[in-house]
C-alpha cells in the first residue's frame, strides 16, 4: 500500500484546495525553499492520521490548524490521504486488493473544535482510523512516531527498554499488546457486569418468572374454563330452545284438542233440543206402559227363579266335572314314569275323555232346550201368548209403539231439515248468480295480469338464473363464513398455532392485507432435502421467523392494528442484498472441496420455494454462506484469503471469516422448519376456505352489480307476479266460498233425505208388525199347553237317557282310570 495523493483544503497556510497527486511509489521526502509549506504538508499527514498532541504539529489551539484561524472566511480545514492498495503483501488485514483497490482517509476540523473522520468517503470513528493505521504499524500516539530536527541525539541515547518499545511498535506487536490489555480490562468489567446480572436473575427475575409462569398456568386454566362455560351456555340455550319448542308443539296440540272439544260441545248443544224432545216422548210412553197388567212381572219372577235353580245345577255339575278332571290329572302325573309302556292306554283314555266332554255338551244343550220349553209352558199356563222374540205380546206391542214414536219424530225432524236446507240452497244459488259477474271481472283481471307477467318475463328470464345464482352464493357465503370462524376458533385454541400466527385486530385492517402478508421465511422457503435442514437453520439463524410482506406499508399497518407480539418484518420492495458470493469464490470453493474431499453448495441452491417472486428473498437469506460436508472444509472456506465466506456444515457447525466458530450439541435447537410445516398444514384449510370466500364474494359482488343495473326490470316482474298470485287467491276464495257452501248444503240435504227414507220405511215395518199381532189374537191355551207339555216330557226322557249313557261312560272311564 502506498500514498497516491494528498488533498489539503484550508489547513494552515493552504487557504484553498491543493492536491498533490500521482506521487511516486518511492516518495519519502519533501524539499523546497524556506516558508514554502514543507512542514505544513508533514503536519497535514500527521493530522489526518489522528494525532491528538497538537504540539507535534506546531499548534497550541485547534483554530491554529485552520487558515489564519478562520478570520478570512475559511471556517474549516480538511486533509485527505488517498492510498493505492495494489500489493497483497502489504495490504491491511480485512482490506483485500480486489475489494478495496483504493483506500481514502480524511479528517476535518471546524471553528469551535468540532471534527470528523472519513474512511472511504464515509463518516467514521477515530478509533477505526487508528486501528487501520495500527494494522500497518503506524501508531500516531507513539511519542517517537515522529522524529523532529535536532531530536536524533535523543533517539540514539534512549534506554534499551524504550528502544525495544520502538522496535515492537515498528514491527506491530505493540498494537496487539495494547488491544490485549484493553480486551482484558473489558472482559473484567463484563464479568463483573455478568455477575451482577446473574445475581439479579437469581434474586429478582427468577421469582418473578416463577410467579409469571404460575399466572400463565392460571390464565390458561381460565381460558379453558371460559371456553367450557361458553359451550355450556350454548348447550343450555339450545336445550331451552328445544324445551320451549316442545312446549309450543304440545300447547298447539292441546289447543287443537280443545278446539275439537269446543266444536263437539257446540254440536251437542245443537242436538240437546232434539234429545230433550225424544226423552220426553220416551217418558210418556213409559208412563203409559206402567199401567199394563202385572202378570208379565210375575212370569218374569218365576222365570228368574227357575234360571237360578238351573244355574245352581249346572254349577254343581261343573264342580263335579272339575273334580273328576283334577283326579284324572293326578292320575296322569303318577303315570308319567310309565309313559312309554302305557302309551296306547293313554290314547284310549284321551278318546274316552273327549267323548265325555261331548256328552257334557249334549247334556247342556238338552237342558237348555227343556228350560226353554218349560218357560213357554209357564207362559201358556199363565194365559199369556209368547211373541216372536220370546216375550209376551203386550210387551212386544209396547216396544213397537215406542219405536213408532221414535221413527215418526225422526221423520218429522228430517222433513224440517230438508225444508231448511232447500231454502238455504236456493239462497246460495242466488248468491252464486250475483257473484258470477264479480268472478268474471276477477277472471278478466287475472288474464290481464298474466299477459303483463308474460311481457315482463321476456326481459326477466335472462336475469332469473343470475338472481338464482346470487341467492345460492349468499347462502353459501353464510355457511362458509361460519365454517371459517369455527376453524379459526379451533386453531386459536392450539398453542403451537398461536405461536406462529400474527395476533392483531384483523377487523381494523384492509381487506387484502392477509393476501399481501406472505408468511414467515421458514414457511415460504424450505430445504430441498431433510439432510440440509439443520445447516440452513443454523446459517439463517433468526431470519426464518421473520414475516414477509410485500411492502413496508403492510408491516406498518399490521403494527398499527394492535400487533400483540414482538415481530420482525421483511418487506420485499425494500430488500437490499449484502455482498453475495461471486463466481470466482464459488470456483475457489469447488477447488478446495476437491482438494479436501467433500461437497460444498451455496445455501440458496439447497432451498426451494414455490413462488418465483421469492427468489430475491432466498438470495437475501441464504445467498451469503456455503453449506459443506465437514468442518475442515468450512474452516478453509472461511479463512482462505481468496474466499473468506461464512460456511456451515451439515451437522450445524459454523466458521466465519472473522474467526468466530460455533458448534456443539444440537439438542437445544428448535426444528423451525418442521414446526412451520405443521403450522402451514393447520393453516392450509383456513387459507383455502378464505380464498373460496373471497372468490365467492367477488362473484356475488359482480352478480349484484348486474342485478342492480336491471333492478327496474326485476321489480316490475316481481310486482306482476305478486299481482297474479293475489288475483288467483282472490278468485279461488270467491269460487270456493259459494261452491263449498252449496256442496255442504247438498251433502246435508242428501243425508237428511236418506234418513227420512229410512225412518218412513221403519214406520211402515212397525205398523205391519203391529197389524200381524192383531190378526193372530190369543190362541187356545189348552191345546198349546198340551203340546208344550208333551215336548217337555219328551225332552226330559231324552235328557234322562243321555244322563244314563253318560253315567255308563263315566263308569267305563273310571274303570279305565283304575286300570291305569
Can you put this structure into words, describing what you see?
The chain is of the alpha+beta class and 820 residues long. Among the domains are: 2-140, P-loop containing nucleotide triphosphate hydrolases (Rossmann fold), CATH 3.40.50.300; 496-670, Alpha-Beta Plaits, CATH 3.30.70. It has 19 helices and 16 strands. The strands form four sheets. The protein has a six-stranded antiparallel beta sheet. Strands 11-13-14-15-16 form a five-stranded mixed beta sheet, with helices on both faces. Strands 7-9-10 form a three-stranded mixed beta sheet. Helix 5 runs antiparallel to helix 8. The model is unreliable at 383-389, 778-789 and 808-820 (pLDDT under 50).
Could you give a short description of this structure?
The protein is of the alpha+beta class. It has helices at residues 38-48, 126-134, 152-156, 160-171, 173-289, 295-334, 343-381, 393-492, 495-500, 513-516, 521-524, 533-540, 552-560, 583-596, 615-622, 631-639, 672-709, 711-776, 781-819, and strands at 2-9, 18-20, 76-84, 102-110, 115-119, 122-124, 517-520, 526-527, 547-549, 569-571, 600-602, 607-608, 625-628, 646-649, 654-655, 661-662.
Layout: helices, strands, pairs:
Layout: E1 2-9, E2 18-20, H1 38-48, E3 76-84, E4 102-110, E5 115-119, E6 122-124, H2 126-134, H3 152-156, H4 160-171, H5 173-289, H6 295-334, H7 343-381, H8 393-492, H9 495-500, H10 513-516, E7 517-520, H11 521-524, E8 526-527, H12 533-540, E9 547-549, H13 552-560, E10 569-571, H14 583-596, E11 600-602, E12 607-608, H15 615-622, E13 625-628, H16 631-639, E14 646-649, E15 654-655, E16 661-662, H17 672-709, H18 711-776, H19 781-819
Parallel strand pairs: 9-10, 13-14
Antiparallel strand pairs: 1-2, 1-3, 3-4, 4-5, 5-6, 7-9, 8-12, 11-13, 14-15, 15-16
Amino acid at each position: 500500500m502506498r500514498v497516491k495523493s494528498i488533498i489539503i483544503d484550508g489547513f494552515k497556510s493552504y487557504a484553498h484546495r491543493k492536491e498533490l497527486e500521482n506521487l511516486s511509489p518511492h516518495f519519502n521526502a519533501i524539499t523546497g525553499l524556506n516558508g514554502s509549506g514543507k512542514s505544513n504538508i508533514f503536519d497535514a499527514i500527521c493530522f489526518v492520521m489522528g494525532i491528538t498532541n497538537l504540539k507535534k504539529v506546531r499548534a497550541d489551539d485547534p483554530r491554529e490548524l485552520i487558515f489564519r484561524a478562520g478570520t478570512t472566511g475559511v471556517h474549516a480545514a480538511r486533509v485527505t490521504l488517498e492510498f493505492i492498495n495494489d500489493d497483497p503483501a502489504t495490504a491491511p488485514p480485512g482490506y483485500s486488493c480486489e475489494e478495496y483497490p483504493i483506500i481514502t482517509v480524511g479528517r476535518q476540523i471546524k471553528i469551535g473544535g468540532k471534527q470528523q473522520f472519513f474512511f472511504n468517503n464515509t463518516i467514521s470513528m477515530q478509533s477505526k482510523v487508528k486501528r487501520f493505521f495500527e494494522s500497518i504499524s503506524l501508531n500516531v500516539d507513539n511519542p517517537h512516531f515522529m522524529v523532529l530536527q535536532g531530536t536524533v541525539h535523543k533517539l540514539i541515547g534512549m534506554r534499551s527498554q524504550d528502544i525495544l518499545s520502538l522496535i515492537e511498535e515498528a514491527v506491530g506487536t505493540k498494537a496487539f499488546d495494547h488491544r490485549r490489555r484493553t480486551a482484558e480490562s473489558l472482559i473484567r468489567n463484563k464479568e463483573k457486569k455478568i455477575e451482577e446480572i446473574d445475581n439479579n436473575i437469581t434474586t429478582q427475575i427468577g421469582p418473578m418468572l416463577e410467579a409469571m409462569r404460575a399466572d400463565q398456568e392460571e390464565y390458561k386454566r381460565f381460558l379453558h374454563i371460559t371456553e367450557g362455560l361458553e359451550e355450556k351456555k350454548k348447550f343450555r340455550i339450545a336445550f331451552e330452545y328445544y324445551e320451549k319448542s316442545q312446549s309450543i308443539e304440545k300447547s298447539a296440540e292441546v289447543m287443537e284438542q280443545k278446539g275439537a272439544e269446543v266444536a263437539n260441545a257446540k254440536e251437542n248443544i245443537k242436538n240437546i233440543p232434539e234429545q230433550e224432545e225424544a226423552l220426553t216422548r220416551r217418558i210418556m210412553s213409559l208412563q203409559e206402559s206402567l199401567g199394563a197388567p202385572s202378570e208379565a212381572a210375575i212370569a218374569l219372577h218365576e222365570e228368574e227363579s227357575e234360571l237360578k235353580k238351573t244355574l245352581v245345577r249346572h254349577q254343581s255339575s261343573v264342580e263335579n266335572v272339575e273334580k273328576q278332571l283334577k283326579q284324572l290329572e293326578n292320575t296322569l302325573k303318577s303315570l308319567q314314569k310309565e309313559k312309554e309302556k302305557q302309551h296306547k292306554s293313554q290314547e284310549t283314555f284321551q278318546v274316552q275323555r273327549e267323548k265325555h266332554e261331548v256328552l257334557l255338551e249334549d247334556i247342556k244343550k238338552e237342558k237348555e232346550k227343556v228350560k226353554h220349553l218349560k218357560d213357554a209352558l209357564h207362559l201358556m199356563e199363565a194365559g199369556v201368548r209368547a211373541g216372536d222374540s220370546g216375550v209376551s205380546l203386550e210387551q212386544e206391542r209396547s216396544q213397537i209403539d215406542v219405536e213408532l214414536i221414535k221413527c215418526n219424530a225422526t221423520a218429522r225432524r228430517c222433513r224440517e231439515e230438508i225444508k231448511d236446507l232447500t231454502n238455504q240452497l236456493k239462497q246460495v244459488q242466488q248468491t252464486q248468480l250475483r257473484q258470477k259477474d264479480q268472478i268474471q271481472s276477477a277472471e278478466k283481471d287475472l288474464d290481464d295480469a298474466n299477459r303483463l307477467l308474460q311481457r315482463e318475463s321476456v326481459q326477466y328470464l335472462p336475469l332469473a338464473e343470475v338472481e338464482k345464482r346470487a341467492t345460492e352464493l349468499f347462502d353459501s357465503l353464510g355457511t362458509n363464513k361460519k365454517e371459517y370462524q369455527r376453524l379459526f376458533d379451533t386453531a386459536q385454541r392450539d398453542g403451537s398455532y398461536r405461536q406462529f400466527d400474527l395476533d392483531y385486530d384483523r377487523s381494523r385492517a384492509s381487506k387484502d392485507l392477509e393476501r399481501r402478508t406472505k408468511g414467515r421465511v421458514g414457511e415460504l422457503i424450505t430445504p430441498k432435502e431433510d439432510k440440509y435442514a439443520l445447516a440452513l437453520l443454523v446459517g439463517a439463524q433468526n431470519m426464518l421467523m421473520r414475516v414477509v410482506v410485500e411492502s413496508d406499508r403492510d408491516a406498518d399497518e399490521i403494527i398499527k392494528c394492535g400487533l400483540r407480539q414482538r415481530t420482525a418484518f421483511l418487506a420485499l420492495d425494500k430488500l437490499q442484498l449484502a455482498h453475495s458470493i461471486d463466481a470466482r469464490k464459488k470456483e475457489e470453493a469447488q477447488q478446495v472441496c476437491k482438494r479436501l474431499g467433500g461437497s460444498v453448495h451455496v445455501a440458496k441452491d439447497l432451498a426451494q420455494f414455490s413462488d418465483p417472486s421469492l427468489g430475491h428473498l432466498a438470495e437475501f437469506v441464504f445467498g451469503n454462506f456455503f453449506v459443506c460436508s465437514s468442518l475442515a472444509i468450512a474452516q478453509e472456506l472461511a479463512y482462505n484469503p481468496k474466499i473468506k465466506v461464512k460456511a456451515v456444515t451439515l451437522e450445524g457447525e459454523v466458521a466465519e471469516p472473522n474467526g468466530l466458530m460455533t458448534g456443539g450439541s444440537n439438542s437445544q435447537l428448535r426444528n423451525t422448519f418442521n414446526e412451520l410445516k405443521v403450522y402451514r398444514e393447520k393453516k392450509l384449510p383456513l387459507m383455502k376456505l378464505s380464498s373460496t370466500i373471497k372468490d365467492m364474494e367477488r362473484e356475488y359482488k359482480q352478480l349484484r352489480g348486474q342485478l342492480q343495473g336491471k333492478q327496474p326490470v326485476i321489480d316490475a316482474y316481481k310486482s306482476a307476479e305478486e299481482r297474479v298470485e293475489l288475483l288467483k287467491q282472490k278468485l279461488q276464495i270467491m269460487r270456493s266460498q259459494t261452491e263449498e257452501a252449496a256442496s255442504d248444503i247438498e251433502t246435508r240435504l242428501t243425508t237428511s233425505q236418506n234418513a227420512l227414507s229410512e225412518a218412513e220405511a221403519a214406520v211402515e215395518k212397525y205398523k205391519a208388525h203391529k197389524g200381524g199381532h192383531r190378526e193372530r189374537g190369543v190362541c187356545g191355551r189348552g191345546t198349546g199347553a198340551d203340546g208344550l207339555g208333551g215336548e217337555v216330557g219328551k225332552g226330559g226322557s231324552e235328557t234322562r237317557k243321555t244322563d244314563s249313557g253318560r253315567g255308563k261312560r263315566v263308569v267305563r272311564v273310571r274303570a279305565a282310570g283304575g286300570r291305569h
